[in-house]
């Protein structure tokens, strides 16, 4: 078994497979993201790292036309809710015509569509 390689505070690899980490509170059971020192619901500090995986549904999205230095525009960003609870903000590799509230997304890893990654993850539509 290989040890995890930390790529950022929340992204790590287990073997060759990247994963995004969230936390599950052992006291109240809530899953949160980003990683923090204590539970945002109950304040307890007994938290276990768990993979943030599966589908997330678009809560809201927008198309960005002015990006930071080195970023390709336009690009899409979205807030999407995972079934486990966390709401994640990330770029989306999709066309604006595809986007709708409630559409299912899944995580992908690498350089986001517009570049300039803060973390090496973004969303892609989970249905073709
Ligand atoms: Zn808690």
The average pLDDT is 87
Question: What's the domain count?
Answer: 2
Q: Radius of gyration in whole Å, from Cα?
A: 15 Å
Q: What structural class should be given to the helix and strand makeup?
A: mainly beta
Strand content: 35-45%
How much helicity do the residues have? under 10%
* Quaternary structure state of the chains depicted: single chain
Question: What ligands does this structure carry?
Answer: zinc ion
What sort of overall outline do the alpha carbons produce when their principal axes are compared? globular
Order of helices and strands: EEEEEEEEEE
Largest sheet data: 5 strands, antiparallel
Brief rundown of the structure:
This protein is an all-beta fold and 128 residues long. The protein has no helices and ten strands. The protein binds zinc ion.
């Amino acid at each position: 078994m290989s040890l995890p390689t930390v790529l950022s505070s929340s992204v790590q690899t287990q073997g060759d497979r990247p994963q995004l980490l969230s936390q599950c509170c052992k006291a109240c059971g809530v899953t949160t993201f980003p990683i923090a020192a204590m539970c945002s619901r109950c304040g307890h500090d007994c938290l276990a790292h768990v993979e943030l995986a599966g589908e997330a549904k678009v809560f809201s999205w927008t198309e960005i036309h002015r990006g930071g230095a080195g970023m390709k525009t336009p690009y899409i960003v979205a807030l999407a809710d995972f079934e486990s609870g966390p709401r994640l903000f990330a770029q989306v590799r999709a066309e604006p015509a595809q986007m709708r509230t409630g559409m299912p997304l899944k995580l992908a890893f690498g350089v986001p569509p517009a570049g300039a990654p803060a973390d090496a993850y973004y969303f892609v539509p989970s249905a073709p």
